[in-house]
Design a protein that fits this description.
globular; mainly alpha; 16 helices; single chain; MetI-like fold; 2 domains
C-alpha cells in the first residue's frame, strides 16, 4: 500500500509540472510583465521608468525562461519561471502584487471556507442519499414521481435565485440571520446558517437524482432478488445490500469533492461576504493580481490530485478485490 501511494504521488509531478507550465504560459506569455505593470499602475500616461520600477519591485525584471546574462546554472534558476512557478512546488507562494503574503492569506482564509463547505458537504451527502433511498423505496409510485419532479425543478433553478431569494426572505423580511458578513469564533455561526442551508438545498436536485440512478441499478441485480427471497425486508435490502454495493461510485463522487472544500465556494462566499478562499480568488481576478490567481490554480491542482489518490485508497476499504489486485 505504501509503495502504491508513493507511485501515485510520483505520477502527480508530471501533471503538476504541465499545469504549472501551462499556467505560466497563459500569465506571462499572453500578458507580458510590461502589460501586468500597466494594469497594476492603472494610470493613463505611464512612463517606462515607472514600469521598470514596478517590475524591479515585484521581481518581474528577469528573463522568462532563460537568462543569457547569468552564468552556469543561474541561466535557468535566475528566471521568472523559477522564482514564480517552480517555487510553488515548495509551497512558497510569495507575495501578492499589493505586497500581502499569499501563504498567510491562504492559511487565514481556509478556515471560513471550511466552515461553510464542510457542513454543506456532510449534511448535503446525507440528505441526498436519504432522499434517493426514499424514492427508490417507493419506486414506481407517486412518491417516486413527485421526488423526481422536485429534483428536476431544483436543478432547473439557478443557484443565484436561492442566494438572492434567501437573503431577501430570511435576511431582510424575517431578519432571522444577517444578510452578509462574518464573525470570529462562535459568532460566525449566525453568518453561516443561511449560506449552508442554501448550499444544501441547491444541491439536492442533482445529487439525489444521481444517487437514485445508482440505487435503481443495484436494485435490479440478482443479489437483491436473492436477499428478498431469504425474507429480508425492503429496508434491510436497501441499507445492508444496495447502499453497501453502491459505495464505490458514491466514494468516487464524494472523495474527489473533498479537496475542493479547501478552495471554498466562489459564489456563496462572494454574495455573503465570507472571507474565504473563494472570495479571495474572485477578488484577485477582479484586481488582476496574477500572483494570487496563479497560486490558487496550482493549489487547486494539488488538492484535486490529492483527491484522486484518496479516491483510490478509499476503494480498498469497500472492495476487497481492489486490495487483491494491487
Amino acid at each position: 500500500m505504501f509503495a502504491y501511494i508513493i507511485r501515485r504521488i510520483l505520477y502527480a509531478f508530471p501533471i503538476l509540472l504541465g499545469v504549472n507550465a501551462l499556467t505560466f504560459a497563459l500569465f506571462f506569455m499572453v500578458n507580458t510583465p510590461d502589460d501586468m505593470a500597466r494594469m497594476q499602475l492603472g494610470t493613463k500616461h505611464i512612463t517606462q521608468q515607472a514600469i521598470d520600477a514596478w517590475k524591479q519591485e515585484k521581481g518581474y525584471n528577469k528573463a522568462l525562461l532563460w537568462n543569457d546574462e547569468a552564468q552556469g546554472i543561474e541561466k535557468v534558476t535566475d528566471t521568472i519561471f523559477t522564482d514564480k512557478s517552480l517555487s510553488l512546488f515548495l509551497f512558497q507562494f510569495g507575495q501578492a502584487d499589493d505586497g500581502r503574503d499569499i501563504g498567510h492569506d491562504i492559511q487565514t482564509r481556509m478556515w471560513p471556507s471550511l466552515a461553510i463547505a464542510v457542513p454543506i458537504f456532510i449534511v448535503g451527502l446525507l440528505v441526498n442519499i436519504t432522499f434517493a433511498l426514499l424514492m427508490v423505496f417507493f419506486r414506481a409510485t407517486y412518491v417516486d414521481l413527485g421526488g423526481v419532479v422536485i429534483c428536476v425543478v431544483i436543478m432547473s433553478i439557478s443557484s443565484l435565485f436561492y442566494i438572492i431569494g434567501g437573503q431577501f426572505l430570511v435576511g431582510k423580511l424575517m431578519q432571522l440571520v444577517p444578510i452578509s458578513g462574518y464573525g470570529d469564533g462562535l459568532n460566525a455561526f449566525k453568518f453561516l446558517i443561511l449560506p449552508v442551508v442554501i448550499g444544501i438545498v441547491s444541491g439536492i436536485g442533482a445529487g439525489s437524482r444521481w444517487y437514485r440512478t445508482l440505487f435503481l441499478e443495484e436494485v435490479s441485480k440478482d443479489y437483491v432478488r436473492t436477499a428478498r427471497a431469504k425474507g429480508l425486508s425492503e429496508i434491510q435490502v436497501l441499507f445492508k445490500h444496495v447502499l453497501k454495493n453502491a459505495m464505490i461510485p458514491i466514494l468516487t463522487g464524494a472523495v474527489v469533492v473533498i479537496p475542493t472544500l479547501f478552495m471554498g465556494s466562489l459564489i456563496l462566499e462572494s454574495f455573503f461576504g465570507i472571507p474565504g478562499l473563494g472570495s479571495y480568488t474572485i477578488d484577485a481576478i477582479q484586481a488582476q493580481d496574477f500572483s494570487i490567481v496563479r497560486s490558487m490554480v496550482f493549489l487547486g491542482s494539488v488538492l484535486y490530485i490529492f483527491g484522486l489518490v484518496l479516491t483510490d485508497l478509499s476503494y480498498t476499504l469497500v472492495d476487497p478485490r481492489v486490495r487483491l489486485n494491487d
